[in-house]
Fold this protein.
Amino acid sequence: MSLHGGSSDAPPAVGNVISSSGNGVAAGDPSRPVAMVPSQRLRLTPNREHKPDTYDDLELEFSASIFSSLERHMPPSLLGVARDDKVKFMQEILLKYLPQGERNRVQRHREYKQKIISNYQPLHRELYSLNPASFFVPAFLKAINENTEQSFRSIMSEPSPGIFTFEMLQPHFSELLISEVENFEKWVNETKFRIMRPNTMNKYGAVLDDFGLETMLEKLMENFIRPISKVFFTEVGGATLDSHHAFVVEYGKDKDVDLGFHVDDSEVTLNVCLGKQFSGGELFFRGTRCEKHVNTGSHAEEIFDYCHVPGRAVLHRGRHRHGARATTSGHRINLLLWGRSSVYREMKKYQKDFSTWCGECNREKKERQRSTIAATKLELFRREGESTA
Ligand SMILES: O=C(O)CCC(=O)C(=O)O
Ligand SMILES: [Fe+2]
């Protein structure tokens, strides 16, 4: 069982950016004494009157919503400066909260992305900003607009607990995205550019975030996947998804064949089949597990296999153990979006018993309850026996 992580580029948890000491966090040049630059500190209490800028049209290392929230904590003297300057200021602060190794990695990855974006010519520009009416099928859009559990359930099936499937993508959108990925791969081959693959387990496929689609996919997560996850995956941070890793995986002749048993480095995973024609490639699921129980066996009711259908999405917890069987003929391309919650990851560090959703934890808990009840009954019988003797 492996943690399917690889070259993910999402920011680590930044939920503790604001110092609880009451002094705020010193910003700017670290070699300057803090007392010399009081105006450069973040404010502990957010300025609720201030309307922050939006940042979601920018390619940033941290989620755009983090910048909008952090802006309310900026020193008053900086609130009115140009947006690019605010970004610089906040980015510097956020980077300080990463360990040095991680900071270097983020910096290298930023340069890598910049190199691609300034040299690669997109083929279908219309893919680079989110256009719900042309990307999604009408029923999916309607359910999202209504935004209720009932509306989501009306378009979904839940063939096994915690696994949701629904029609999502318009065929034309899938065709364009496949063609964009092929164009990107052609450019990679022609220029001999060494790209990073989506993760440690796939040799093929491409990270969509790395060649300009990050902003569009961030919106897709925030406006379409987070509302659903808030309802069905709230116990694993579904309501607070704030970063993502999005990529395509490709199987078939001269591509990957299958994908081993693993869990994803995500709280919630969206997996949508884009096409093309193929046989095989079924997803197999084997129950949700916390870190402690990740390698335990499966129970009959946890075994579920799913056949991919182009345009149809599967949504599941990242910790729902799964893999993909061999694609035996044709070519299969799937879009994966791993949604992550920095808030949930931060909370998990401090709270030990967090696994109410782990099949094995629940089984152990039930077993404990059963044996406590049995012991109590036995004790009652014994006392009854004593009193009647
Ligand atoms: O091939 C698939 O559909 C599964 C892909 C997957 O599980 C992953 O990339 O995390
Ligand atoms: Fe996976």
Remarks:
- Residues 4, 262, 264, 269, 322 surround fe (ii) ion (ligand 2) (CB under 6 Å).
